């Protein structure tokens, strides 16, 4: 039997035998499972909330950083453009001298790629560091020029690919240069690479596989942390997130990202004042901390599972111990009960036996006394008054005497029958051959004139009560003796043979009157006789006595015979 | 020889008559004293009660004791006789209908000198009485009286 089957059986018997306990156990298990499920959901939603709000915070932090950076650059540009000497030089159109003043700026501010000066019409007049082929070029069509020249206010442009080689994607911070009288005399432009602005936020842990991208005021992708070397400027203005950003909305949502082709957590925050936007994105599978969460939840579930399992095992063990104890207790009680009943029954039997003995005693005394009187006085009449009785009278009295004597035999045989039933068995080794020879000797003595051919197989040893077995042999051999009384060359044999099972069957065989097998069933009943008393005298109790003795030895007795051909009585012990 | 008396303890008048007849038929003409229950038997033998005046030096040569008796049972009578120094050696022949083994064993253990079963067949009874009479009245020397 497998452990599983055992467990199932144990559970089955548990449910069958202790429905209340089973209910209690189920309730406990349900509570544990319920608590586990609740905890799971709580943790799940908490983890989700945490994950989402964390992304949103990152997006806001990024956006704030960008706002600050833009502001700083505008401040730098304004402070540069308002230097007195610089503005005077610009006003005097001394472009080369003016730019010379700002020569060290790109070194001092590493995020500033380069800077240049244009006149108020957008024609580049000087640049630092100087690049070939751009001085004198007109950039009036550039967004930054349109932006700054609109109200002559500082302006941060969307991303664009600059003209000067190497053609980097840059952002222009453009501020008007005003003369001391307040007249716009030129434009100072700082070219900035976005990634340089984000150096300071590189350390922020956005989470596994997370990336950010920056959308400029035209809805173009200005920077993508995953695709830093992207040369082509991609227009994202049609995407829902960018549209929300351009409307100044901020938030976090889970959606399908077409570019990454997977479910992502998208947190977005606008960069106020500049119309830009910041997006922090992470695949759902990693963003919600699924790995960590799964580990956590798995541990949680494993923990609860373990508690549940331990609970069930404890319950089953407790139950098994309890039921074993109960069984032992009921066994003990049953045994005590049995013992008590055996004692009671024994006492009853002893009482019955005592009664039976008293009854037998009475029978042997009280029934025999009148018979003795009848026989005795009949004899007295025959002796003392013989001269006054005719032959018929004497015959009648002789019949009275014969009848009383026959009744005496009946009483004796009945007493023998009852004695073999109730007498205590004294088991021992009995030599049946010796016993049979002894019985034969007695029979021969009772009728010395008879000639019978006896054959007794020597050394037939059996286990049993010598007294009872003697009574059995007296009856069996006595019967053989009796029923061969009218047979010439009478033969009686006592022997043994092995039956099919290897057990020993003893037998008494004679060649006497035999019996009709039709009535074999009646042979062993008390008072059953198959012969006339006048033919073969007897009380019909002998074989019943034999059967009782053999049965008391746990054996079997049966007979075979045919009318006129003798009989064989078998018995086993 | 005739001074050897027989005490017959018998409550059944039929058995009493038949026993007396059997004795007579066997030419045992000794005096037979008859008592009808165990108590009377004890009174007689111990010369007490109704027999207080009896000569204690004259005891029966043999007591034929029935077992099933009114008042005091035959075996109880035997027990008391054997417990008393005066009657300890008194010849007692148990004469009864019972051949129950228990009676036999008890009878011998209590010191019965003989045990004769009264057969239904009167002829056999006669023979048994003859043998008892022959042995106890003619062969056996009575024990010295104390």
Oligomeric state of shown chains: heterodimer
Content of β-strand of chain B: 5-15%
CATH topology of the domain at 424-572 in chain A: Heat Shock Protein 90
By CATH, the superfamily of chain B comes out as Response regulator
Helicity level of chain B, as a percent range? 25-40%
Low-confidence stretches of chain A: none
CATH third-level topology of chain B: Rossmann fold
Strand order of the largest sheet of chain B: 2-1-3-4-5
Order of helices and strands of chain B: EHEHEHEHEH
- For the CA atoms, what is the radius of gyration of chain A? 65 Å
| CATH-level-4 superfamily name of the domain at 424-572 in chain A | Histidine kinase-like ATPase, C-terminal domain
The CATH architecture of chain B is 3-Layer(aba) Sandwich
**Category by helix and strand content of chain A:** alpha+beta
Give the percentage of residues in beta strands of chain A: 15-25%
- Which architecture name of the domain at 424-572 in chain A does CATH use? 2-Layer Sandwich
The biggest sheet of chain A, with number of strands, parallel, antiparallel or mixed sense and barrel status, is:
6 strands, antiparallel
Radius of gyration of chain B: 14 Å
Shape by Cα distribution of chain B: globular
Low-confidence parts of chain B lasting 5 or more residues at pLDDT below 50? Answer: none
Report the mean per-residue pLDDT of chain B as an integer. Answer: 83
- Cα end-to-end separation of chain B: 21 Å
Task: Describe the protein's architecture and organization.
- The complex is a heterodimer of chains A (573) and B (146).
- Among the domains of chain A are: 111 residues, Beta-Lactamase; 126 residues; 149 residues, Heat Shock Protein 90, CATH 3.30.565.10.
- In chain A, 51% of the residues lie in helices and 19% in strands.
- Chain A is α+β, with helices and mostly antiparallel strands and 573 residues long.
- In chain A, strands 1, 2, 3, 4, 5 and 6 form a six-stranded antiparallel sheet that branches.
- By secondary structure, chain B is an alpha/beta fold.
- Chain B has one domain: Rossmann fold (3-Layer(aba) Sandwich), CATH 3.40.50.
- Helix content of chain B is 40%, strand content 14%.
- Chain B contains five helices and five strands; from the N terminus they run βαβαβαβαβα.
- A five-stranded parallel sheet of chain B has the order 2-1-3-4-5, sandwiched between helices.
- In chain B, strand 4, helix 4 and strand 5 form a beta-alpha-beta unit.
- In chain B, helix 1 crosses helix 5 and helix 2 runs parallel beside helix 3.
- Chain B is globular.
- The interface between A and B is medium-sized, with 27 and 23 residues.
